[in-house]
Write a structure and sequence with these properties.
CATH topology of the largest domain: Aminoglycoside 3'-phosphotransferase, Chain: A, domain 2
CATH class of the largest domain: Alpha Beta
Radius of gyration: 20 Å
Strand content: 5-15%
Shape: globular
Order of helices and strands: HEEEHEEEHHHEEEEHHHH
CATH architecture of the largest domain: Alpha-Beta Complex
Number of helices: 9
Oligomer: single chain
Number of strands: 10
């Protein structure tokens, strides 16, 4: 972001910090995009200014973080200030800065999910899991794909949504993270820790488990031995469940449309987005397809 464009963002940061008694002097931008992330110098505080219209999601994330803390789940912690607050219609939350960290291992992910899924459902309005949230919008934005591929993905979306509505019975619903991959379930010097809580909802625990299974069966990012260790640590293999293909299909569709959406504004990702579509359409042989990460 240019200096001139960053000035309004810094002004908003100064306003919200003043409102809760924090000092924004010398704050460093971590990421200034659709969501703005700032680090407050010398205070070990991260300020997240979300995009407009996300007030309900921010309030839910704050409630979830407090609930996880009350239940001793290792997770990113809120700063002890009144929150969220708003700046120009944008919700703002304040978090303790994390120590140095790296992506979690499959076993780290399994341990965190096992602890989360064992908790009684919270008395919070989390809403029910929607595996297809924003898929339609992503496809509309996927301008690097041709019309035939986009039409095919729309049909796949409809077929998967119908299958989801009539999916086989699985394990009892519980609170689920919603986006349980190693970038969100990380490892610090103190052990594994959960972050990025905005997709929390009530739903089938299989949805959280499918992420690691797909990283093994579809993308090749997790080895068979690592997946076996993940299943042993959690105590269940989701690929043996009759509904696995439905949820795996939803996760694959999310990964394809995510890449396609961002390829529209980042041409260097267009080849990977097209490759993922080609894989789903049977043009690249059987799984695993060894998809490369983007962003």
């Amino acid at each position: 972001m240019t200096t001139s464009a960053a000035a309004p963002a810094r002004h908003a940061l100064e306003q919200v910090c003043s409102a809760v008694g924090l000092n924004a002097d010398g704050a460093e931008p971590v990421r200034l995009a659709e969501n703005q992330i700032w680090r407050l110098t010398g205070q070990r505080v991260i300020v997240r200014i979300a995009r407009a219209g996300q007030g309900a999601a921010a309030r839910r994330e704050v409630r979830v973080a407090r609930w996880l803390a009350e239940n001793n789940v290792p997770t990113v912690r809120l700063v002890d200030v009144q929150q969220p607050i708003e700046a120009d219609g944008r919700p703002v939350t304040f978090w303790e800065e994390l120590p140095p960290h790296e992506h979690g291992t499959p076993v780290d992910v399994a341990h965190l999910l096992r602890q989360l899924h064992a908790l009684p459902a919270p008395d919070l309005d989390l809403g029910y899991l929607d595996p297809y949230v924003r898929i339609t919008e992503r496809l509309q934005a996927a301008t690097t794909l041709d019309e035939a591929d986009r039409a095919w993905l729309h049909c796949l979306h409809q077929d998967l949504a119908a299958a989801w509505a009539d999916r086989p019975t699985g394990r009892p619903d519980c609170a689920v993270h919603g986006d349980a991959w190693p970038g969100n379930l990380i490892r610090t010097i103190s052990g594994p820790l959960m972050m990025d809580l905005e997709r929390f909802s009530l739903g089938p625990p299989e949805w959280d488990l499918v992420s690691t299974a797909v990283r093994t069966k579809t993308t090749g990012a997790v080895t068979a031995a690592e997946y076996d260790a993940f299943c042993a640590a959690y105590g269940y293999d989701v690929t043996k469940w009759a509904g696995y293909e439905i949820l795996a299909g939803a996760r694959e569709l999310r990964m394809v449309t995510y890449a396609a959406q961002h390829a529209a504004s980042n041409p260097e990702w267009a080849d990977q987005a097209q490759h993922r579509v080609d894989c789903l359409r049977g043009r690249r042989g059987p799984r695993p397809w060894n998809w490369r990460g983007i962003m």
